[in-house]
Amino acid sequence: MPSEDAASIRLQKYLADAGFCSRRAAEKLIESGEVLVNGTVASVGTKIVPGVDRVVASGETVRARRPGRVTLAVNKPRGVVCTNSDPHHAQTIFDLLPAPFARLRLFCAGRLDKESEGLVILTSDGDLANRLMHPSGLVVKFYRVSLKEEFPRDELPKLTKGVVFEDERLKVERARLIGRGEPAVSTEIDVQMHHGKKREIRQLFTALGYTVKRLRRYQIGRFSLRGFPLRAAKALTDSEIASLLAVPR
């Protein structure tokens, strides 16, 4: 049985703080029965005392992380997947990391699909990852969409109102055409969203009859990729981490 005293914390928070996965992913692991506490299958809501209770997740002993968390920004190119390992693809986003960071246990706080590019946050801070990914956090992500066909300005409301595609409603919060003045049509569109299901932007344009040629996430909160080289990775300062969560001007 798990211990419980004034120093106890919820199991999903412990897993996130340890850098094993995000809090949301931890809850899914617990629900699937893949987390043991002192040899007993845990349930969501279980509390443990770090350093006292033994936690095993997916067959691996999870130890509390020493003080000091790391958060990186990576400018992901096309063809790279946001996973720790993938038998079907030679390169993952973790392969882009310089030596000092390559040995750290980090996870993606919001992924991009293989064909998309741009800003990805890797972190060992489970609470930060949860705030960046959970829709209730209202963290705004900015994307530039390049289409094969021209998109008319009078269809922009369809993007923000949303459409139902394969039994799911897909939408963005804001959308505008890119071009000189106020173009009537454009193949370049800037969109903003704070939720984001897997491949949602691509599927939204597909449902409306448009082909996405390029999709790039260039900003989260107030943190931008401006001047940031493709394939580069950098450790973020406390102020830069705070800018990820800040409301854009």
Topology (elements, then pairings):
Elements: E1 9-10, H1 11-17, H2 23-31, E2 35-37, E3 40-41, E4 47-48, E5 55-57, E6 60-61, E7 71-76, H3 99-102, E8 107-108, E9 117-123, H4 126-133, E10 141-152, H5 156-161, E11 163-165, E12 168-170, E13 174-177, E14 185-193, H6 200-207, E15 212-220, E16 223-224, E17 233-235, H7 238-245
Parallel strand pairs: 9-15
Antiparallel strand pairs: 1-4, 2-3, 2-5, 5-6, 7-9, 7-17, 8-9, 10-14, 10-15, 11-12, 13-14, 15-16
Helix pairs in contact: 1-2
Q: Can you describe this structure in just a few lines?
A:
Helix content is 20%, strand content 30%.
Brief descriptors of the model:
20% helix, 3 domains, Structural Genomics Hypothetical 15.5 Kd Protein In mrcA-pckA Intergenic Region, Chain A, four-stranded antiparallel β-sheet, Pseudouridine synthase, elongated, nine-stranded mixed β-sheet, alpha+beta, Alpha-Beta Plaits, 7 helices, 249 residues
